[in-house]
Design brief:
185 residues, 5-stranded mixed sheet, alpha/beta
Length: 185
């Protein structure tokens, strides 16, 4: 019986090419999920030795609570989510006039002194779902967007997408997005 001293070999020269092609194929065909988040700019830190607290008139605070059952409440009254945008717009932009012709029967619409002094306070319960929290955030963002769009059309005579940087700043200064978020106790 004769034993060969030659060991059989597999030609692996093209293996690297095949692996590279498979890698490219999976990179091109795979979808990379991008998380959608809420775009917010955090306030700057208060300089040491400076009092950064400010007293806000209660009239200028719109308190919105999302309870553990995902119900939206304003001033301890449960409201449908679809009313939130209009109520917020009325609170921000009624210049002290408490009338709200499109708030669908919600009677206790407070009014801020001016949009520059208005603060929206949003609190959520520990069991509030992320879906409801984001839906409330979307309604608040829509309210500000619509008010800013109306301002840019009426005051500047342009749509928001045609504004210069200076004009954008003017619109944002007219309707500053002041939102205070906290978890309920």
């Amino acid at each position: 019986m004769r034993h060969s001293k030659l060991v059989p070999e597999v030609n692996a020269g093209s293996m690297a090419d095949i692996a590279f092609l498979l890698l490219i194929f999976f990179l091109v065909t795979a979808t990379i999920s991008s998380d959608a988040g809420i775009n917010r700019l955090l306030p700057r830190a208060c300089p040491q030795g400076t009092d950064c607290t400010s007293n806000i008139n209660e009239r200028n605070i719109l308190r919105i609570i999302i309870n553990n059952n995902d119900e939206v409440m304003i001033e301890n009254e449960i409201i449908p989510l679809e009313y939130l945008k209009d109520i917020t717009k009325t609170f921000l932009d009624n210049n002290g006039d408490g009338s709200c012709s499109y708030c669908n029967g919600f009677k206790d619409v407070k009014s801020s002194d001016s949009p520059k002094e208005a603060v929206v306070s949003l609190q959520n319960g520990k069991q509030t779902t992320y879906k409801t929290f984001v839906a409330v955030q979307n309604e608040l963002t829509k309210a500000y967007y619509e008010l800013r769009q109306t301002y840019s059309l009426n005051v500047l005579g342009k749509t928001a997408d045609k504004l210069s940087k200076t004009e954008e700043k003017q619109v944002k200064d007219a309707y500053p997005f002041m939102l205070s978020e906290a978890e309920t106790k």
